[in-house]
Structures
1.
Amino acid sequence: MSPTWENPEAVVGRLWIRLAVAVGVILVVAAASRAQQSGSTKNDDPNPSPQAALSGTWKLNRDESDDPREKLRSAIQDRNQNGNPGGMGRRGGMGGGGIGMGIPGIGGMGGGMGRPNSGPGQSSGSDPQRARLLDLVEAPNRVSVAQKGPEIDMTDTDSHTRVLFTDGRKLEKPKKDALQTQVKAHWEHQTLITEEKGPDGEKISHAYELSPEGRFIDTLTLESKRLNTPIIVRSVYDKPE
């Protein structure tokens, strides 16, 4: 029996169809892979929107913010009542009576001990030290935030600028009375965290973030050897109208 020969044109046609189908499958798979990689790149960015959204000028909303004076008053009351290993009270031991605040706008505490030279045992320099603590926890009325890649500049109403670096670079030593200070910072998800030291060795950290309502929130935590517990002050900022 003689073999049956197919029409060469039909064979070529089938080959072209198979080739077209194969090419189509390859293109679909490649497109899906590119889309997946693009989505992964976007999701891997830890702070796509907060960094840009923090930029701008913000005005302190005192009604929504904590009162730093009350926070400081409460921390010193606790220190007065329970004593302090740092020895900020009377000479000769812990818990030997209260100490005076001597901070403008807060007034004396602990039986009128806020007056200079009020008697034996008054710790020298306590009034300026407490005034410095208040300066550290009080929030500025306005803050301008400028994002420059890993650098975030925060300038207050007195033209003091804190330059936050999130890339781990070595920072310059702060100069006395300088208007600009460099601060180490890092991102934790959508929150910008800073870590720094106060003039008397205080540990100070800020957590900057945006609320769901679009407000700029600054949560300050201050730890001092002169206090038993940290002072935590939450300041809320709005965009000025």
2.
Amino acid sequence: MNIGFVGLGKMGQNMVERLLKGGHKIVAFDLNREAVKAAKRKGAIPAKSLQELVNKLKTPRAIWIMVPSGEPTENTITALAILLTKGDIVIDGGNSFYKDSIRRAQELERMGIFFLDVGTSGGIWGLKIGYCLMIGGQESVFEEMEPVFKTLAPKDGYAYVGNSGAGHFVKMVHNGIEYALLQAYAEGFEVMEAKKKFDLQLAQIAHLWNQGSVIRSWLLELAEDAFKKDAHLNSIQGYVEDSGEGRWTVAEAIEENVPAPIITMSLLQRFRSRQKESFSAKVIAALRNLFGGHPFKK
């Protein structure tokens, strides 16, 4: 298929490469000129602007957007909508908030433009392994674009999950679960790291747990690699960002009256990781000293 691709970051660049290897023709654009040159070296047709990208595609056009959620995605879709014509397809493969995707689908539909929201998981390993794709929108449009999804995903690695917004909703919850899994592994390894008496080898244990254990996973494979490179992670600062999906999952759980304490606490622990010192801990230490005479560290 002929596809326009906007956004050539780490994931976008690898997705373009995988599509090219799958026999698709790609017209690629990014604000970063060097990224466009890199895509050209892989076989993509370069574009210097969105206008040029649109001009180089035959109608009906299909354009995949892989840019950060929020304003970058909003601006890109708004700019494309002016350039596209009836029957064209816009695919948002980023981590957009699902309610924004529902709105965008409705706005584009009024212009005769189709929209698919595609939750994309796979990170930097997607080029080799393939991407897990969670797809929302009109089912007929999904079917039209299925050859693209089949190329990007491993076997059984893509699915049409529902109407507009469903793809990004499923990806949002996926990432909320990811937060909780990461926190559980992190806490377990911290307990073992703290038990100096046994001098435990964390890389060995991560490898061991992946041999038939009920908690085996790809994350444990990555943990093994991390501990092999740096047994006590001395080179890494314990500062963890969040990209939004965890917050959205917690907010959705509250909106739907669903108890989600583990995902919620994993999100709050990320906030804690960014504090050099906890003010709330200071308050607790001060109060314990005043009501019970418990000592505190100066």
3.
Amino acid sequence: MFVATGHVYPITDQLLDIFLGYAQNSLMFHNLGKGQFKNVSGQYGPAASLKSVSRGCAAADFDRDGDLDIIVNNLDSTPLFLENQSPGGNWLELRIQDERGMPAYGARVQVNGESRPQVAELYSSASFLSQSSAALHFGLGKDQHVKSIQVHWPDGSQREYKDIPINRQAIVKKNSGDVRYADGSGK
């Protein structure tokens, strides 16, 4: 989990030392599972030591290598691009679309891999004046197979798709009986 930081008021730098200052280091947390996170803020590369007045961030696989990268919007400064260079694992990216091919905001998806289920919801914003990719990204680690995905559409209907190939971007369109892939193939 990444948290873009920066105080709201510049005068913070002139106040008591109880504040972290106007410009701050962003925060990074590693998900340990079961609602527990470990602070790894100082371990995510050279950008960890940069202080900025960040106002939002967005995540996407900008370089199309199967992991999420982050772009951070900074007040009165240039954006910061954080390229994920961690050792990669297996993954699945899902574009959940309505009948017209538009993102189906409000859809909830459960991916059932070999080791554990994961749930994500498609929404249009997650950070101030920022929007992440409309694709849902699932890190699968060492899992070699996705048994099924279950899509709960915004209108309350549900659909299950089985035996989904990994390390690809899949397109799931409402009222379509199959899953398509970004490379043009279908199942």
4.
Amino acid sequence: MKHSGIEWIGEIPKEWNPARFKYSGCFVKGKLPVIQNNENKGIPVIGASEMLGKEPRLYTEDSNLPMCTEEDILILWDGANAGIIANKCKGVVSSTAVKYSCTDKRFDKQYMFYLLKNAEPFFKSKVGGTTIPHMNTTYIDEYLCVLPSFSEQQKIASYLDKVCGEVDEMIALQEQMIEELKAYKQSVITEAVTKGLNSNVPMKDSGIEWIGKVPKYWEIRRIKNLFSLRDEKNSKPMDEVQLLSLYTGIGVFPHGEQEERGNKAITVEGYKVVHKDDIVVNIILAWMGAIGVSNYDGVTSPAYDVYIPDLSKVVPHFFHYVFRTQGIAGECYKYGRGIMMMRWRTYSSEFKQIQVPFPSIDEQQSIASFLDEKCSEIDSLIAIKQAKIEELKEYKKSVIYEYVTGKKEVI
């Protein structure tokens, strides 16, 4: 062994030599496709979510744009995850990504992929921008690595393909189980808020497609008969109020607890006042489930609607669960309007017309308590699966690091 001359790498096999990525390849920036659709037809558009392993969401018929194959290396250039490296993607490279082609004959292409994967923490520590984080070619030029012989590179790359492929399969299995648990949680919520907790009671048709049959003694009410719109505006300075945000997956929380990056409010003057037990609705994303009860007093974006529950009729936490069903999301889309899906608005005049199940207030409380306990159990299982995924990802990172820095040798 010998010292590499690179502090964070330390010692390397004596046959290996330090190297830079500078001048090792060329970059092709992606472009926004001209024609897009959501019908799973045409050429997949590869952007951030696809590079993170998700199925393509957009397709194009424009084949004159930068294309990538499964052998190409992609670098996410813009956005919160700028700096991540991916391969095995096939389609049109979106405007947020760059295709990197290795032209330096010293590097095996697949080994170069693992060198860049190992550099992800370095790249992500460097990315910046006044509004949207973005990569820069100088970050790649600055990065130091070490190189074995070309045949050794191929040997290491082949071994890492095998090990990382096995780890990815284990991660995919955990992710599948998480999706199954989420689907189960959604079914438990929907069953409880539309059918109650007693399966032996007589039922009747609600007359509402997404609700179906309900217990015979339940009623169906419009939201406007249970909630009123709060139109109270904030006049206090930022340091005297708690800024609240609405997260599609989990509900209403103090701003900053959930996100790592994002635009921060510089003033809260004119923001909407929220009191504990109010229902907060994201007008634009209500059809995606961005509705939730607030457990906090605070203020929130003027882009949200805030509803006051009639506490003589309503247990807010019960309706938190009602409003987070797929049925309500579908109703928000049905009653909403807009020129494109991601700008589909459900205004208060339409939202208040939606019909919801309405059991007695005592039964609302029982159902809410049951769902709190049941959902907590499911969330705990999901958390265990997510922790396992993080453990596997860290293991994968450590394996790549150990072999591309010569700490371990492929036997």
